[in-house]
Design goal:
Blueprint: H1 2-13, E1 21-24, E2 39-47, H2 52-62, E3 72-80, E4 85-92, H3 95-106, H4 111-118, E5 122-130
Antiparallel strand pairs: 1-3, 2-4, 2-5, 3-4
Family: Belongs to the NipSnap family.
GO biological process, one term: mitophagy
InterPro entries: Dimeric_a/b-barrel (IPR011008), NIPSNAP (IPR012577), NipSnap_domain (IPR051557)
Length: 139
């Protein structure tokens, strides 16, 4: 009974919902518990249909430019739900370290080339900053 009341209350707060089944890119690190405090950036890319293999091939090379500070948490792609959707999850100490880390990637020879080849594959992109809950293994 308590659960049914909770569901009813929750439904009044829920504006929309979408589900995805995601697979992990093999070239990314598997997400591991992290000591904090950190903030997380979830970057979502909606790709043009038929471009997932090209995206993956480019990012298999590009990820090496973003491993220096251990900011790469995970990379995933949709298998069920909206297709040709990619999610990258990054960890930073704060917004300032995010900016510094991202700027440092641009100073590395080869990063710009990877961006050059992946940008034409994107239809839309979104960035969200998230703060972990106390119960999250990603602090």
């Amino acid at each position: 009974q308590e659960y049914l009341e909770f569901r009813k209350e929750r439904s009044r707060m829920l504006l929309s919902r979408r589900n995805q089944l995601l697979l992990e890119f093999s070239f990314w690190n598997e997400p591991q518990p992290r000591q904090g405090p950190n903030i997380y950036e979830l970057r979502t890319y909606k790709l043009k249909p038929g471009t997932m293999i090209e995206w993956g091939n480019n990012w298999a090379r590009a990820i090496k430019y973003r491993q220096e500070n251990q900011e790469a948490v995970g990379g995933f792609f949709s298998q069920i739900g909206e297709l040709y959707v990619v999610h990258h999850l990054w960890a930073y100490k704060d917004l300032q370290s995010r900016e510094e880390t991202r700027n440092a990637a641009w100073r590395k020879r080869g990063w710009d080339e990877n961006v050059y080849y992946t940008v034409p594959l994107i239809r839309t992109m979104e960035s969200r900053i998230m703060i972990p809950l106390k119960i999250s293994p990603l602090q």
